[in-house]
Each structure stands twice: as structure tokens, then as C-alpha cells.
Automatic annotation (TrEMBL):
This is RAN binding protein. Residues 29-95 form the Importin N-terminal domain. It holds the Pfam family IBN_N. It comes from Cryptosporidium ubiquitum. Keywords: Cytoplasm, Nucleus, Protein transport, Transport.
Amino acid sequence: MSLDPSQLSQLEGLCESFYGGDVNQQKQAHEVLLPLTCNLGCLTQLQALLAQSSNPHALMFAATGLSKLFTSCWAQIPDNQKEETKTFLLNYLYKCGPDMLRSAPYLVGHYVRLLAQLVKFGLLDSLSPRPTITDQVGQFLSASTPHWIIGLIIFTTLTQEMQTSTGLYFAKYRRAAILFRDTSLPVIFQIAIKTLRQFHLGSVSVSNQHEEYRLLRQVLQLTLCCLSYDFMGTVPDETSEEQNTVMIPHSWTILREEYIPIIFFDIYAKCCSPNSPMPDCASICLQCLILYSSVRRSFFPTQADRTRSLAALMTGTAGIIQTKMGLEHESCYHELCRLLGKLNTANQLTELSSSEAFGLWIDQVYNFTIKSLEEWSVLPNSKHYLLGLWSHMVIPLLYQGDRAPQNLEKYIHHITVTFIQSRMKLAEAIARGSDVEDPLESEVARTEQLDVLSQLSRCQYHETAEFIVQLFEQVTDAAKNGSISQDCFISQITWCVYMHGALIGGHSIKLRRPLLPGSSSSSGTSRPDQKNQVSHHVLNGKLARLVFGLSQQTDQLAETPESLELAYLYFLEQFRKVCLGDYAKQFIQPETEDATLASILGVQSDDDVLSLIISKIGRNLQTKSNMESVVQKTLSLFHELVAGISIVQYTDRTTHLIVSGRLLLKNEQVKKILCNHASPEFAFLNNPRYGRHRTSYYFTLSKLLFLDSKEEEPGTQPITTFEDFMKPLEKVFTLIWDEIILGNNSSSNGGGYNIVQFKIPLMALARDLRGICMACVGAESYNQLFNWLVNRPKQLGQSRIHLFTWAADKLWEDSDVMNALLKFMSEFVDNKSQRINFDKASPNGILLFKEVSSLICTYGSRILSKPDSSFQNIYKEKYKGLATTLAMLCHALSGGYTNFGVFEVYQDQSLENALQLACRMCLVIPEHDLQSYIKSLKSYYEFLELATRCFMSTFITSLEPQNLATICYSIESGLCAVDNVVLLACCATLDHFVSFIFTTLEKERIVLPNGMGISRNNDNMNCELGGGLQGGGSPSLSSQGSTPEGKAVYRFMTEQPNALIRIMQLMFNLITTGDLSTWTFSRSLLGMILLFSNEFQNIQQQLINQQIDEKKAKYQALIQDLLKGTDGTLSAVSKDAFTRNLHFFAHSIRSNSL
């Protein structure tokens, strides 16, 4: 199709308005142009616009529109049209690209991206394609310089486009990425390195300096893309660089050449020269060196090769630091810091120190680090890599002892002190109002810096701790004298508190005995080598005393800055881990009796040390309710105190298990909290926004409550009983029950009840109960809660638990209330740790499931009746509730405490109603939304697995074939999911589903049309795919099934056979690219092969035809051996044989033996 001049002019005018017109013109252009990008019939029109127009806006729109159409409608576009478009783009870029590169370089990017997408999608068209893009682009590299640049742009964009990424169809795109890695990427990398070598040797002759710069920058960018390619297809975590290893294929031998690092360092020097500064190219050189230094250790065949490479990197970086070459550019400075950090994390200290270049390198890095820390306001984020370099040397340094490199310990201590001083200067500058980033306001940045300090301080710990103590005293004295402002004092003292915690948390303390209330000192003499350990113990006590003293002073104030409160909590967490939880290590005898932790802190006993922490927790929960982060971290600290466990070795060498919760039970303040947990003094409980914090609070208290009941000795009274503990919650139940359900609300004056006022109490009640239930880890504690909720088992409708079903009936539209109620019920029916263990004669399991079924049906029927268009936030208001409901049903079905046969025997519809409603819930979630919220909707796939495993008859007879196909399509998408839980659930669901179909067909002797069916040859135990039970079967064969299950199977297999065929095709695609475990797929794949023999034969032929002639015979033998040893059934023996065959088949392909 071609456009006549008037059509072309009209479209160009609309494109001009689309990108640059006024509001009315843009609106009109939108109405005309946007449909072109959504209608497959407009594909030729966009192609004609791309071919005929010279208007930049029209070309940009055409390229963008084609990209959108090819992405969304790839399967519907004929192959010849795809190939013609790709050929046109290559020819157009070759013919018009140089002019476009000069006049409108951004257009080149649009054309190249479209071309890269066509190549990428083309790799998915067949099971084993042979891409030829490198040959097609080769013509660009041998033409003019602009052509050369465009060719490199194509390779760069193609490499970026092929990178694996998470999301929908991850596994499919990963297949394309792996094929590209094995075929085209090695050739592209060779081209990039050879071009760089030409630059290095000076053999590249470009008269135009600007073109030379663009060419160099593009080849460096291409090299960087090749080195940063996701070779393993695992989408590595990029939030941390410490563990990132470049998994270069062993076949990339060019990267082992000695000149590789020299090329990058020399080009870096050239780019930083004053005559022709190119800082962006210099920065890319350093990025390439970072990746080169991250290459896996096994890539170098010998240790000598690796040592030579490391020496070149150390010499090069030392030279840059020594000459300060390019460091005035921020990008170069930052990348150099990254490179130095990577050299340390990728190599051990012994490897670094054994290099001849180490002496010069470590001196230069030390001087560079000190100067960088002194200039603390310049690129603060870059300094993290320098500090990380030194912190990673601490442990190896301490381990090596006298064998450690000279001056290294002194260097690390000096850097530690300089870093501490820089934090004080930073705090002072922030107090003055300087425009710098405050790490105290960023938890990530603050945590990184404190972690580094805790490591650095382990080297010459005593000197570092003494320095911080003096700094603390100097800051407090300066505040008293008025020599610093209040803002400066708060900022600096907050840093001091944080640093006290970092030192204590990073230093391994050894004490002589555990912290047991009322324990007395043990006699004994200290060993001579324990002197420093005791001094560290005393010093840590001094650090803690300063912080506790400051905390007590600030607690007397009306308001305390939130940053300082968070610093206190950080310190207490470190203090808890080391001083209360680190008693699992051996204990030492202090020098004097005055050196106990309690005496250093100025309290009477070890129990008083606990009281210092508990008092701070109590004060925060009472007075800091306006600071949510403080409340959250306080509750987290409280929970860690309760749940901590240590294995302790006493001085007499006996070993004891110390549970810190037992220590807390002996503390008077903890007893007070446990007995008055719902007191109005705990102001955070009155904040409706703190729902999750209520759950955490009651989870912690309940652990103490149940621990106290276990520890109760005969003749002793518990701190509080379960009944007394539940009285505040009972009051809420009674209030709602009497005033609403029973209608005893005297204030309503006969006008009914106002349910809105009870929403907040209902949510609070559900969250409190969920916390209590989470603490029920055994049958005894769970039965206490069950009996409290099901207090009238013979009248279930009048039990406390029925309140939630009633609430679901009245408040189903309120997502906040329902999410809280459903989460509690999901937790309550979860049989984790086998805590739900009713007596055999007990009806409790049946009662519990009936209540769950009632809640599901009440909520589900109502939420499904509401149209999607009426939801403002469909995830929060609908999908979240559906996901929790499905999870609750999964817990109830898999709990093992209910005899589901009872419901069928007594014709009780509870089970059937719950299953049917759950199936309806699955069907109302669109495929796109399911994949978008797959993390939250895992219960969707978990329910399908349970339903097909345990209730397949109900599942298949209650759904129409079209609905079953819809579920199969969602399983198909789930097979491409990144989440392993979803993947395993999909594979198990398919196994159950296909096995049921196969068994039903075999049992009822059902004949299927269109070549579908099963046949067996038991003589040689090899499966023969005969295309169905036709002609040779028994005369008594039924055509469409004799039972409801058989008829449902027949309808599904005849009306929706493509649902399973598509999955079988996808499985072969994934297996041939190594995406998944063959065992995971084999169980269900065998059944589909037996059901769809003709389609399997087509797949075999397609796989064979797409191989080169030399490999066709071997490929054919491998495929034919897939069914070797199987007998045409789904018996365990047949499945095991198929699994072995499939593993060998996949391994042969992945190992490049084909």
C-alpha cells in the first residue's frame, strides 16, 4: 500500500499537531492517530508512512506505532510481512541513516529500536531459529564512518533489547535472550573489541573529530552492553554490587588477552587529555573495567593469568589516583570509587597483597580515601565504595595477624577516625541549613554507613571507642556551654548515639556469665590473655551508660526529635544482640567484681539492666504514638527480646539454653505490661492507622503469655491467665454482640443501630486476635483460643466466631474491615506446625470448616455481585480480599483436621458451596490483572492445585469447558512466572488435571475425535501414539462418557483441546532453552503427549526440520527416545522413565551437543 500525496500531507500535518500543536489540535490528532496504533489493519498504512515521509514527526509516530502493533499483534502478522519490514528498515537505515544521524539523530533510535524488536520477536517464532542479524548489519561496518556508527548503534540497541527482564512472559523472552547469547552476542563482542583495538593502535582514521568521538563512544557503549549482559538469564539483583559476578562464557577467549585492561586505561587517558576532553567516554572505560574485574574466577585458566590481570588493574588505578587524571569530572570520580571497591570484593586480601603493585596501590588508595573523606560534601554516595573497600579488609587483617601487610591496621584506624569526624562536620553543616543530603533521614544510607563503621571499628577497637566517648562528651559539653546551636547538638548527638550502637554491634563481646536476674558472681581467676577482653567489656559498658543517661534526660522533655528516638532504638537493638543475646559464647571472669555490666551502668542487678530496655519500650508505646516509625521499631525490639534464644556455656563448661523471654517474665515491668496490655496509657492502640502494629504487639505479648503457662511450676501462680488476658477483647465482643446483633442498643431509641461506629473496634479486634493466633504454635495454646472463640459449639451461630460472618454480611463493601477479618480467619484456620489437633471424636474440625464456608459464601457472593467499574481501587477493594479468601480456603482444605466425606454423606452443601464460590472468584480475575498482581494472588494458583488434587470431580463438573480453558490459559501464563511457588503450583495443577482426564478416558473407554486419545502396546513397554482409540477398541466403548465426570471430560476435550495443546507447545519451548527443571514439567507433559499424539508428532517434525542437515539424525533419535521405556499409561514407572528421557534430551540440547 502507498499513500497518495494528499493522504501523506494530511497524516504529516496530524503528526505535527500530535507532537507540537495546541491543546485542541493535539486532541484532534489523538482521535485520528491513536486508533492507527491499535488496529492491525492499519499496519500497511504505517509502513507506507514510514517509507514515503520525510517529516521527522511523522517518521517518529510511524516507528512508534509499528513498534506497538508488532508487540501486541505479533502472532497475527504474516511472516513475509515481518521479514519485509525488517529488510526495509535495514535498507532505509543504510540509505538514509547517515543524513538522519546528522540532522535528526533521535529518529535513528526509533528505527533501530523497531528493528531490534522485530529481531527479538523473530527468535520466538520457532523452537530453534538461526538468526542472521550480524551478517545483515555487517555491511554497515565496512562503509562510511556514519554507517559504522549506525551499525554499532544497531548492535548496542539489540543487545539492550535482548536483556532478560522480569514481568509477563519472562520465560519466553529469556529463551530469546539465551539464543541471542549463544549465536549473535559472541560475534558482536568480537567486533566491539577489534574496533577498540584499532582505536588503541591508532589505525582508525576519521577526519571529522565529532564523528570520531561518536564512533568511540558508541563502541565503548556496545562493549559495556556486552559485558553487562545477563548471561545466565537470572535477572540478578542490582541493588548491591558486592556479589555481582560477570559469568562470561569460556569461549570468549579474546577477553583473556593481556592488552584488554591496557586498552581501557589508555583510552581513558586519551579521553581525559586537556586537548580533547571526553569525560563521558572516560567514564564508560571505567565501567567496562569494573565489569572486567568482576569476571568469574574460573574464566582464567591459570592463577598466573588471573594475577597478571589483577596487577594490571591495580597499576592502572594507582596511576589514575597518582596523576589525578580525570578526577575533576564527577562521573569519572564515581566510577573510579566503584572500581576500587570491586577490586577488593572480587579478590581476597592475600591475593591483593601478593601482587607487586600492592604497596604502591594501597598507599595511593589510602591517600585518596583520606582526602575524599575530608571533602565530605563532594559526591557523598561515591565514598561508600571506598569505605566498603577498607571495611572488607578488617576481618582478613585480624585473621592474618603478624602476617598482615604493614601499615594496613594504622591506615584503617585513621580512616575510621576521619569518617567519624566527617559525620560531625556533616551534622554541623545540616544544622546551618546547608543544601546537603542528610543520611539520618534515609534509612538505607544510614544503615550502610553504620554497617561500614561497625566493621571498621573492629580494627583498634579500644582506640576508636575511646575517641567516640570523648566526642560524645565534647558534644554534650558544647551544648551546655551554648557554643553550638540546639539543632547542631541534636544532629551531632544523634550521630554519636548511632555510632555507639554500631561499635557495640560490630564488636564481639565475651562475658563471664549470662544475664540472669539475681545471679551472683562466680569465683575464679582470669587468664592473662583476657585483659584486653575485660577492658573491651568495661568500655562497652561506658558507651551504654552514656546513651542510657542521655535517654533518661530526653524522656523528661515534652518532645524529642524522632531522629534521636530512632537512634536510641538502633542502639538498644545492638545492645540487646551483644549484651543480652551473645551469651552463647564462652564467658570470662572480669578483673574485679565492680566490672559487671550492671555496676558499670549504675544499677543493682542484671534484672535492672533489662528494666532499662523495657522502660524505654514502655515509654515509647505510651508517649511516642505520633511517631509511627518509632512505634514500629519499638515493637520490633520488644519482639526480638521476647523471641531471642541463646546456647550458653557457663564457666563450668556446662551448656544451657537461654530463652530471653524467660528472663523477661521475671521482670516486674514486663509483668505490668502483660496484665495491663489494653490500658489507655498505651496511646498507640488508639490510632486506627496502626493496625499492623496492633498485630505485632499482641503477637509478642501472647508469646510471653503462652511461655509463662509452659514455665508454670506446681504451686506457683501465673502472671495472668488466658481468660484474664482476653477480658479486654471479650468486652469488645460483648459490646458489638449486645448492641448490634441482639439489638440491645438503648441509644438507638428503636431506630436501629449505627454499624459505622463499630468498624474501628471490629478491625482492632480482628488484628489483635490475629496477633494472638500467630503466637499459638502448639495444640495447647491453639485450643485455648479455639474454645474462647467457639464458646458455644452446639449453637455455632451464637459463638463469638460467628461475629465475623455477620460482619461480612453487613460490611462486605468496606475493604479495610474485610481485609482485617479475612486475614485473621486465614491465620486461624492455618494448621502450621500441626497446631490444630482435635480429638478423633471431636466435631471441632467440621464446625471450623462450616464457619469458614459460611464466611466465604457470605463475602464472596456479595463482592462478586459488584461490577468492576464501581471500584475505585480494584486491587485494594476486590483482589486483595479475593486473594485472602482463597488463601483461607486453601488453609482449611489442606489442614487435615476436617473429614470432608461427612458433608457428602449428610448432604451438607458447605464444601461444595465453598469450592464453587472459589472457582467463581478465580474466573472473575482477568488474565492481565492476575499477572500484574501475581505476588499477592499466589493463592489463586495454590487453590487450583488443591482443587485439582483433592476435588477434581467437583472442579470439572461445576465449570463449563470455556471456563476450564480460561483457567488453563492462566496456568500457561503461570508457567512463565518468575516466582517459583507459582511455577510449581501450575505444574502440579497440570499434572492432576491431565492425569484425571487420562484416567477418565481410560476408565470409561471414551472415544475422542480429531486424532486425540490413547493406545498402548504392552509387548515392548514402549508407547505407540496411535491417534486415538478408533477401530481397535472394545465394541462396548461409550462415545461421550457415562458419568458426569466423563461427560465433562469429553466436552472439554472436544470443545477446548487447544487449551492443553498450547501448554504442551510452551513446555517444549521452555525445555529446549533450559528455563525450568525437566522433572517439574515431565509429570504433566507425558499425559499431554499421550492425549495429543498428532500434535506431538508435529512438534517433533518441526524440531527436526529446523536443524542443520548434520544434526537432524541425532536430533530425531533424541526425540524418538523420549517415550522409550514408557507403556502408554501414567503409572509411576512410566513417568520415571519419561523423566529420565526428558532430562537427557534437555541436557543434550543445553550442553550444545546439538
